[in-house]
């Protein structure tokens, strides 16, 4: 932590290191603005972050703890004539809610457990760890303590199943191997201890998104040369859950050709539909305002194709109007084939890399970074209603012309209840659709499992994405909340995976560990207003869509408001074309909170998050 | 504090790049000169390849380059050449910036061959392995460099302990970057051949390539070469197909070698259908489909022998064109081999399905004699007899050919049931894509193979659609359609056993299968779109009456030495010059000629000139 004072004058101060904030920071810095980028958290990327397993555990723990009410310090002594203070709100713990953690794998190495032959302690410990953890926000439940023994009956059952489950597996194995697969005996059961031990090889995203190959994020990464800071992997297949099975969705020409589940006539119909919908036709216009599904029905495509087109390609609901459905289909198809057989890319080491890449770009062009550093209040000129400066949590007054802030730092004044996203992160021991290659990255669309349930998007990451350890898959589920994350997503999990709740699904991959939580869906938050000065811009955080269009558009809008004349993220020059004038050519490496000290520096830093 | 970053201006960058380029050029030129000073005179002369001169032009160095070359040429002091490792180094430096420098590859090969003689085997292996690694870097620079691939071939062949699996994986990598790199395909074929990769594995390889992108002729073609090896047609199939190790002389080895067993064929039909249903506009799949549907080669035989007493001439028709001069034919007349000269019917083509020969005068002219002729096609071990009975002026011997033998072989030898189901699925596709030309064309071909006469109406309708959807190729479709109409007419004529051939008002644009009309005496082609009577027309050795009114004929080249031709009706055509009528002068019996409605009739003195040109004509209509 830099003990010395920060410079007291910047052009743009940005609070929060989520994706839109980081893009704004990079864009401003790139065109020569002096940028100060702060985050009160100890890690980059805010709710866009990726954690190691252990990092995620401490993140969970942090949200389980009561937020300590922060005493509001009075910084009015720092004011000049004609100025007033506007306080930012307390750190907003409500952006994450309904955290629930389950562990379905045995706590210790099986060998150890067996050799010690002491079932009781093991079980006891399992109970502790496996407890359904409810955050205090859920006040109808009993208060959370460090050791929760009291939980709902159903969950208790689960817990007791957990330790025995391992044994059950053991006894079942002979049956299994004779009955069906020979793979079963070789599959080594991964224990919780193993997950913790190898925890740093996980990169678990808080948000789950994919990059459309021709989406605005990819375009921006290319245009700005930020892409050089990261590596990407193609999502290798699109799957869908249908009639109780996971099926592959043929979407590219090669997929359609190779598909075994489509008849040749269906292949032709699908290809023809996909080709025809790229262009606006009179037929499309005739359906204007009516649901996309109605249009699909009238194309006489058959159930198979209709399902694929609606749920997996357009990824819209049954009542989405045709304009939106077609736009989504086109977006999907345009992205297809640019880098591979699916329209999506995923960054190695997780999505948390992306905001950090933009932060690095910002730092390369002179932006200053401080983590665990926040802004307490704004200094506002009463006459102009503009923010002249900010006062940080150490009482330093830092003048600035523009202030960009993540919405969780701004008080909740919106009357309307905010929408939520339901999230689940699963560590499993196999793919939902095993194939020749065990290194598949799959996007799975899951239509509502029953009436009133939401559409779920599931992303299954393999170890080669550098987000999980060999032998495991990392599965992200996302949907718009209807209830709590657990209520929304557990039915999907039990259908697609083998959990203690679905003991009959032996042939499905087992869930080793999982967490459910809700996040605030920030889409719809205005950039300006909120009773804030006119040169303060609010980044709304996450949205529920699969792509990054929303965040990038937001960043671009903010940038254009700050610097209407400037180019948004022009290509960064090659390193050899950069001249360092006079002073110390390299960025100071001693400051812990500063980025831009090169690849190693950054990796180290992301590891210090743990 | 942070130093603000300045970016070099474009001018600065340009300048630096220019300097960099100059530096590289300097190194290149000096290396090249060193190299040439080591190369022998012979090599120097090779250097004046177009490519190298062009390259030097590009470098803006032409003058100095030629200068240095001539200098070197004059004092070329190395008769034996320097074949050392230093030279290897220098050439490597040059080739790594320009891998298309063929001379240097040659030089390198000489050096390597020299080193082979002086080094231990292990060392040679090491040198060659280094060479392969170097070649890989060259291929990265230019994956389609002829020189690099050729050199790699050469090195791989000389490597004491070649690692073929590594070479295969190199090819796979290359093809995954560009699946149409034919250099790589060539090299791969070599590797596969030398290393003996199992055919099944190679078929799997094509599966993979086709799976990732089926618009790839190379993969489909490769498949068509592998399948007959892996799944040869079973011996008990209806056609006498199974090849014993030594092919029997009566069948050419190609006849059966590219057939595939039915079980596998059905799988292939399914695969290729998936491709053309997915993208019916991709022609690679359709071409492969055409191959699958098969193409039987007709048995080589003498299909007809015709003998005419008046002209004392023998005409022989074959199942495929032969070279009249070199074909090994033996004519035996009444037990006596005759020394005759075989010739084609028209001097314009040497290869023709019909050959003629004139017997010595008086041999068969006596109508009271009976003669027995045998024509032996000695190289094919086949022959045909023909008897000319007393009182007859002509005689012939031929097979009553069926449609199967005549034309169907062009598409398929597959079982009718298979073709029928293929036709069904194509019709299914046509329902979805009524304007797809590949589908239409394939349907036409399938219909031809199944029942040419039965599907005649539908075929003609499809041709009409084809001309509309693909106007660029309407002439091709017209010609193909003409061909089918002629085939059908020939078949009908065969069934009726007549010697009259008539196709009127059918928009014929071209004439073909004229060898089938050897015996026709009366032909009526009026009201079509014909522009010429091609040289092949001279095969109609029995023709007496030719009716071609209302066409667009400009050229009568084929009406040439037709011994029995008496009447030519050419009303309303495009004959414009007297010279165009010249071929008629070679027909001795011509007595009636109708030229009404031709431009040539407007010429001055036409009547007298025609009389001079064609003295035998007594009935001239102008």
Automatic annotation (TrEMBL), chain A:
<dbReference type="InterPro" id="IPR018203">
    <property type="entry name" value="GDP_dissociation_inhibitor"/>
</dbReference>
<feature type="compositionally biased region" description="Basic and acidic residues">
    <location>
        <begin position="122"/>
        <end position="135"/>
    </location>
</feature>
<dbReference type="GO" id="GO:0005968">
    <property type="term" value="C:Rab-protein geranylgeranyltransferase complex"/>
</dbReference>
<protein>
    <recommendedName>
        <fullName>Rab proteins geranylgeranyltransferase component A</fullName>
    </recommendedName>
</protein>
<dbReference type="GO" id="GO:0005829">
    <property type="term" value="C:cytosol"/>
</dbReference>
<dbReference type="InterPro" id="IPR001738">
    <property type="entry name" value="Rab_escort"/>
</dbReference>
<feature type="compositionally biased region" description="Basic and acidic residues">
    <location>
        <begin position="599"/>
        <end position="610"/>
    </location>
</feature>
<dbReference type="GO" id="GO:0005634">
    <property type="term" value="C:nucleus"/>
</dbReference>
<dbReference type="InterPro" id="IPR036188">
    <property type="entry name" value="FAD/NAD-bd_sf"/>
</dbReference>
<dbReference type="GO" id="GO:0005096">
    <property type="term" value="F:GTPase activator activity"/>
</dbReference>
<feature type="region of interest" description="Disordered">
    <location>
        <begin position="569"/>
        <end position="610"/>
    </location>
</feature>
<dbReference type="GO" id="GO:0005092">
    <property type="term" value="F:GDP-dissociation inhibitor activity"/>
</dbReference>
<comment type="similarity">
    <text>Belongs to the Rab GDI family.</text>
</comment>
<keyword id="KW-0343">GTPase activation</keyword>
<feature type="domain" description="RAE1/2">
    <location>
        <begin position="421"/>
        <end position="544"/>
    </location>
</feature>
<dbReference type="Pfam" id="PF00996">
    <property type="entry name" value="GDI"/>
</dbReference>
<dbReference type="GO" id="GO:0006886">
    <property type="term" value="P:intracellular protein transport"/>
</dbReference>
<dbReference type="GO" id="GO:0016192">
    <property type="term" value="P:vesicle-mediated transport"/>
</dbReference>
<dbReference type="GO" id="GO:0007264">
    <property type="term" value="P:small GTPase-mediated signal transduction"/>
</dbReference>
<dbReference type="Pfam" id="PF22603">
    <property type="entry name" value="RAE1_2_domI_C"/>
</dbReference>
<dbReference type="InterPro" id="IPR054420">
    <property type="entry name" value="RAE1_2_domI_C"/>
</dbReference>
<feature type="region of interest" description="Disordered">
    <location>
        <begin position="106"/>
        <end position="184"/>
    </location>
</feature>
Automatic annotation (TrEMBL), chain B:
<dbReference type="InterPro" id="IPR002088">
    <property type="entry name" value="Prenyl_trans_a"/>
</dbReference>
<keyword id="KW-0433">Leucine-rich repeat</keyword>
<dbReference type="InterPro" id="IPR036254">
    <property type="entry name" value="RabGGT_asu_insert-dom_sf"/>
</dbReference>
<comment type="function">
    <text>Catalyzes the transfer of a geranylgeranyl moiety from geranylgeranyl diphosphate to both cysteines of Rab proteins with the C-terminal sequence -XXCC, -XCXC and -CCXX, such as RAB1A, RAB3A, RAB5A and RAB7A.</text>
</comment>
<dbReference type="GO" id="GO:0097354">
    <property type="term" value="P:prenylation"/>
</dbReference>
<keyword id="KW-0597">Phosphoprotein</keyword>
<dbReference type="GO" id="GO:0008270">
    <property type="term" value="F:zinc ion binding"/>
</dbReference>
<feature type="compositionally biased region" description="Pro residues">
    <location>
        <begin position="235"/>
        <end position="250"/>
    </location>
</feature>
<protein>
    <recommendedName>
        <fullName>Geranylgeranyl transferase type-2 subunit alpha</fullName>
        <ecNumber>2.5.1.60</ecNumber>
    </recommendedName>
</protein>
<dbReference type="InterPro" id="IPR032675">
    <property type="entry name" value="LRR_dom_sf"/>
</dbReference>
<dbReference type="Pfam" id="PF14580">
    <property type="entry name" value="LRR_9"/>
</dbReference>
<keyword id="KW-0808">Transferase</keyword>
<dbReference type="GO" id="GO:0004663">
    <property type="term" value="F:Rab geranylgeranyltransferase activity"/>
</dbReference>
<dbReference type="GO" id="GO:0005968">
    <property type="term" value="C:Rab-protein geranylgeranyltransferase complex"/>
</dbReference>
<keyword id="KW-0677">Repeat</keyword>
<feature type="region of interest" description="Disordered">
    <location>
        <begin position="233"/>
        <end position="257"/>
    </location>
</feature>
<comment type="similarity">
    <text>Belongs to the protein prenyltransferase subunit alpha family.</text>
</comment>
<dbReference type="InterPro" id="IPR009087">
    <property type="entry name" value="RabGGT_asu_insert-domain"/>
</dbReference>
<dbReference type="Pfam" id="PF01239">
    <property type="entry name" value="PPTA"/>
</dbReference>
<comment type="function">
    <text>Catalyzes the transfer of a geranyl-geranyl moiety from geranyl-geranyl pyrophosphate to cysteines occuring in specific C-terminal amino acid sequences.</text>
</comment>
<dbReference type="InterPro" id="IPR001611">
    <property type="entry name" value="Leu-rich_rpt"/>
</dbReference>
<keyword id="KW-0637">Prenyltransferase</keyword>
